[in-house]
Design brief:
α7 (175-185) packs across α9 (201-214), α7 crosses α10 and α8 (190-197) crosses α9 (201-214). 37% of the residues are buried. This protein is of the alpha/beta class. The chain folds into 2 domains: 20-157, 3-Layer(aba) Sandwich (Rossmann fold), CATH 3.40.50; 161-241, Arc Repressor Mutant, subunit A (Orthogonal Bundle). It is built from 10 helices and 6 strands.
């Protein structure tokens, strides 16, 4: 459902060059309307389309080129994981488009899949937090700029980090390990990290291994240690912030 035309049928809205173009994908009417209301009166956003199923959403993305998609996880046709599928597909087809997942499910599987290819341009919020419209607006702004946001409750469910960074396992990292972890959180490969930090790939591998050891993340074939380290980093941020 495109919202490109104004209410009077007068054609495409003008003067929106600086606005963040947003598509909202949610199959429940009342929730969809609540999401729309979050952006009501905020001149920096433009809702360009509403979708209630995956096929319509993907078509709207191709036609309208949004900056950000705000999406539920489950919608037709299967009602299983369409929102995550969409986010994964956009990593390949439109890596510049940000995705904010707004879900009622505190499920580690969904979160890990969303951030598996990196945290840049991705956010995961719980629906009961949307009552705070500023949080969703901030999430959209951050992913539009390539940043990330994760609901603290989601991270608490995935990692058992303490609130005080002075007592966190992250405090054990050296400055160089922080540099490496920050780039892991951006989804960069060891080779790319090596190039950016002027290190050998072998050196980066050693740093990554040391990070996992210090964060007490044993090798697990089912859960990506890089993703869990990313989530911990996103929750507590760089040492300069504390």
């Amino acid at each position: 459902m495109s919202l490109e035309e104004d209410d009077t049928g007068g054609g495409v809205q003008e003067d929106n060059a600086e606005r963040i173009r947003v598509i909202i994908a949610e199959d429940t009417f009342l929730v969809r309307e609540a999401l729309v209301q979050v952006f009501d009166g905020a001149a920096e956003f433009e809702i360009v389309a509403l979708s209630d199923n995956l096929d319509d959403l993907m078509q709207s993305i191709e036609t309208l080129s949004p900056h950000v998609v705000v999406s539920d996880i489950r919608m037709p046709p299967t009602g299983v994981d369409e929102g995550i599928m969409m986010a994964e597909a956009l990593r390949e087809s439109h890596p510049e488009i940000g995705v904010v997942i707004v879900s009622q499910y505190l499920d580690s599987t969904y979160v890990l899949r969303l951030f598996e290819r990196g945290s840049g341009g991705r956010a995961y919020l719980l629906k009961d937090r949307v009552a705070d419209r500023n949080q969703l607006r901030r999430a959209v702004e951050q992913v539009a700029e390539g940043g990330s946001m994760v609901d603290p409750l989601v991270v608490d469910a995935l990692v058992t980090a303490r609130d005080d960074v002075q007592h966190s396992k992250l405090s054990e990292l050296t400055p160089r390990e922080w540099d490496v972890l920050a780039r892991v959180a951006e989804g960069k490969s060891n080779a790319t990290i090596a190039e950016e930090l002027y290190l050998t790939k072998r050196a980066v591998e050693k740093y990554v291994h040391a990070i996992f050891v210090k964060l007490d993340m044993p090798d697990d074939v089912e859960v990506s240690r890089r993703v869990k380290a990313t989530l911990l980093y996103l929750r507590q941020g760089s040492p300069e912030l504390h």
